[in-house]
Design goal:
With 283 residues, this protein is α/β, with parallel strands linked by helices. It has a single domain, classed as 3-Layer(aba) Sandwich (Rossmann fold). The protein has 9 helices and 9 strands. The strands form 2 sheets. Strands 3-2-1-4-6-7-9 form a 7-stranded parallel β-sheet, with helices on both faces. The termini are far apart. The model has no long low-confidence stretch (mean pLDDT 92).
Length: 283
Amino acid sequence: MSETKTPVWFITGCSTGLGRELARRVIRRGWRVAVTARDAAQVEELASEGGERALALKLDVTKQTEIDAAVKEAVQKFGGISVLVNNAGYGYQSTVEEGEEAEIRAQFEANVFGLFALTRAVLPVMRAQKSGNIINITSVAGLIGFPGSGYYAASKHAVEGWSDSLRAEVQPLGIGVTCVEPGPFRTDWAGRSLKQTPSRIADYAETAGARLASTKERSGTQAGDPVRAGDAMIELAQKGVGAPRHIVLGAWGFEAATQAMKARLDEIASQKALSLSTDFPAG
């Protein structure tokens, strides 16, 4: 494949974790990539591995001016964007009752509104190409709400629902949409990057309180491998518009998600008579 035909990736949140490992895998394949982080200095060494095929960019997804500038610079250098990976974001844990307003809103600015804004900025490029893939990194928490993660789960559920609508709109235009839903992975998510509001209400000690403590304690020992996750995302992107809507990463996440979805479907089916009874009578 010639240099002008190699895919162009645009990846957010590349300073650590899944984003960084994915960017490294893309660079090592000889593809072109915009490697972004809030502090571009944190990804300059990584981008240097790709020479002229990689571009280190400053990007805080909560700032529209930085979104516009980063997308413009990437398109000017590479001529387009083949794959957008919306990876930037972080976790915030608290009980629902004790959640702090400022922390909740900051979580949504990064995980939801920033992701929306960047995608809107990239869509005109992909529509003009009549091709592209959008990969949204959500979480198993985008499918299941766990105690202590209500606001994080809400942010990921929002992206999941939005992705359904996005896919319906852009798949006929040649653009694929996939949500990648990791379970526990050995990244900084549960360590340095995690924000928590400790629970001080005894009634939540055995539910949310216990989970807040265990999340921190397990950081660094999770089963999920970010390198293998990067390989999986590359495989997904190569499927083009036929890429699946969902992919759950890791054995724990796969089992949790499939069991929860089956239980949800069974519950809905068990209430069929009551559900149907709310329509106007036929005839």
